[in-house]
Amino acid sequence: MRAMRRLKPDPVPDELIHKILAAGQAAASGGNTQRWRFLVLKDAAKKKAVQVYYKKAFDEVVGPRYASSPPPPGSDPARYKRQHAAVEYLTDHYHEAPVWIVACLEDGANPGRTAGSSIYPAVQNMLLAARALGLGSTLTTRHTQYEKEVDAAMGIPPGYHSYAILPIGYPMGRFGPVGRGPLSEVVYLDNWGKPYPGLK
Ligand SMILES: Cc1cc2nc3c(=O)[nH]c(=O)nc-3n(C[C@H](O)[C@H](O)[C@H](O)COP(=O)(O)O)c2cc1C
Fold this sequence. Notes:
about 200 residues, alpha+beta, 3-stranded antiparallel beta sheet, 5 helices, globular
């Protein structure tokens, strides 16, 4: 899976969106509770209303952070710069993706460390399904920095929250390889820090 942030505004057939949603619903959830709701958003005014906050959060937090942080593992300054440009592009064109799937979850008893763990498997399933169908998307959560405002703009009722927005469309470019650091730097055997010799 690779983030695909440059999307064509061309419409996406409903039967493809159906397949993506079915993949989402096939995901695991704690206790098989399935407290998810998937809001398919095509409404231009609602998407634009959310984009305004998505951009605000970029200008206030994300942009400055990208500008001052080092490239992540497996990246380099040039590649990181291209990532930043793509993030900025999606920020400006977020609402132009023809379809959004907004992954929502009913509020649970536990707002702690596992909050979200019953919705993100569905999100990843949908991202993989989109990719398999030749569609581009990216897991986005930045809108949650203004969660009250954006959830109201999307008409999400009390008792539910949006956890991710997947802007979906046909990709402008190709799906390249992902950039990650060496696996050996993040895997241990038995004791924290001890190398796992099973890695080639
Ligand atoms: C929890 C989470 C939140 C994310 N939120 C955003 C977002 O709001 N906007 C965005 O452009 N990308 C977002 N991403 C995508 C990451 O930036 C992306 O996975 C990362 O840059 C690696 O990209 P790659 O998979 O193409 O290598 C998010 C990813 C995760 C896991």
